[in-house]
Amino acid sequence: MSTLTPLWDAAFAGVASGASRPAAGPEAQRLRAELGDRRSQLVAEVAGARARLARWTGDPHVEAAGAAPPLEFDAAALRAQLERHPSLAALDAATRQAGADVALARAGKRPDLGLELAYQRRDAMFGDMVSVGVTVSLPVFAKTRQDPIIAARVATAGQARAQREAARRALTSELEQGLADYAMRREQWLRARDTLLPLARARADLETASYGAGRAGVAEVTEALTGRADAQLTLLEREAALARDAVRLTHAFGSDQ
After folding, report:
1. How would DSSP label each residue in 191-250?
2. Is 121 in a helix, a strand, or coil?
3. 116: which strand partners?
4. What is the C-alpha end-to-end distance of the chain, expressed in Å?
5. pLDDT at 17
6. Going by fewer Cβ within 10 Å, which terminus of the chain is more open, N or C?
7. Beta strands of 72-198 (E only): which ranges?
8. Within 13 Å and on the Cβ side, how many CA atoms surround 178?
9. Closest C-alpha to 148, from 190, 112, 106, 186
């Protein structure tokens, strides 16, 4: 913004000297205020990010280090890894436990056969003895004892499977919505990088050249240069939003690797 200050001041000087239209002064002031608002917003976002980082690191003067996070990731890989999501793994364990409880309850309804083998060494005059015994435990009153337990275990297993499926669908929906938002922000970032900023730079160059040739006034040059700075800030904002989406999706749905 400091590079634009002489132009903004020149706009007021042009109005005072009569070289520019009276409206040029307020217009320059408006452009300056709008650009100042954008800058203040970015400064606040940086301060907020540092405060959140200090919360996790415990360092009140923390500074970001290393390369910036990548803006690209493999969406197909995130979809493929969804089944291994930690929350689904926990529900899978609960589902297996419920299935084991059902098997155990059903086993209680089946007859239980037992075999006992005993060897006794007695006095020589009597001789040794080997005895074999068979035990059979039969479940009685199955309709009032085993069957209700089995039904309860089956219902619990069904609930566990339903909860797991509901969690999978919720995660799938969250992932797809996140990917859609990321695709939108990526298009906006590319549009700012490849179209909006180049056009703003071209306009600023043309207005500056026209001013040098005497075919444009200070107001036109000021507006063009302010527009270029605004386009640069827009590109930074969209790049930051895209990076946040990429990091959030990668950490929320990516592998532990």
Report:
1. HIIIIIHHHHHHHHHHHHHHHHTTSS-HHHHHHHHHHHHHHHHHHHHHHHHHHHHHHHHH
2. coil
3. 133
4. 43
5. 46
6. C
7. 112-120, 129-137
8. 22
9. 106
Residue keyed to tokens 């969209």? 238
Rounded to an integer, what distance in angstroms lies between the CA atom of residue 84 and that of residue 257?
12
Residues 6+ apart with CB under 8 A from 7: 28, 218, 221, 222, 225
Alpha-carbon dihedral 226, 229, 234, 236, rounded to 10 degrees: -170
110: phi then psi, degrees, rounded to nearest 5: -90, 150
Provide the token pair at 42. Answer: 């970015």
Quote the tokens at residue 119. 């060897």
Report residue 89 as tokens.
Answer: 């793994």
Q: Is 219 exposed, middle or buried (0-12, 13-18, 19+ CB in 10 A)?
A: buried
Taking Cα atoms as reference points, which of 226, 236, 216, 247 lies closest to residue 29?
226
Own/partner pairs, 57-62, CB within 8 angstroms, 24+ separation: none
What's the pLDDT at 142? Answer: 57
H or E segment at 188?
helix 146-191
pTM of the model: 0.69
Q: DSSP letters of 76-91?
A: HHHHHTGGG-HHHHHH
Rounded to 5 degrees, what are φ and ψ at 70? -65, 150
